[in-house]
Amino acid sequence: MKTALITGASSGIGRDIARELSRRGWRLLLVARRRDRLEELSKELHTPCRVYVCDISREENCHWLYEHTKEQDVSFLVNAAGFGLFGNFVDTDLNREMEMIDVNIKAVHILTKLFLQDFVKKDAGCILNVASSAGFMAGPLLSTYYATKNYVVRLSEAISEELRSMGSAVTISCLCPGPVDTEFNQTAGVAGFSVKALASEKVARLAVRQALAGKLLIIPGAAVRLGAVFSRFVPEKPLLRIVHGIQKGKAE
Known about the structure:
This protein is an alpha/beta fold. It is built from 9 helices and 9 strands.
């Protein structure tokens, strides 16, 4: 039985990826801060799983997690933990932003590095980094969040090319959805999305299927894919105004 490790497994896309992998017969290592939610999820799954209560915003905890799971023969790493923070950059809380950078960037970087080294040695394994369509542009009013997702997208792309050039069978994928029906709004302090959100379950199914097939960029929804292409051809300043208007609408 293959084993997957999933951060951010207590809610949203991470939780639904866990459900999808369990349906596919995977053994799961579930990671998040909320023990009650992890244990509740583990009881509903039909494959063996272990719960790791771990705050990966702390660098030492990322290393602790790796040391306590590296002998579990993990072959699929899912970095799904992350959150956003809404508001003008001049007003948002610095400590909360530093925590966001720690979760959205540092934890992803550390866990990707440590498990990738093992995967490359075995010449087998798959990594799925959960980013966002925000990773393709700048995001006024969600500036730090957008910047963190840009990091995840570009890091994943670069690693993918390195793996290809060395002839490795290991793959890395980056999930870049638009609005998804999760707890993101509540955590970020946003009233609501300005466009209809996708169901988290559907996004998770697509992500698992395409990641296991080795697809690099996974962008659910035709409208979001078109938007990603559109953003490449719009001059930067007009694009910033468009995105700012969209984000402002979330507050209203």
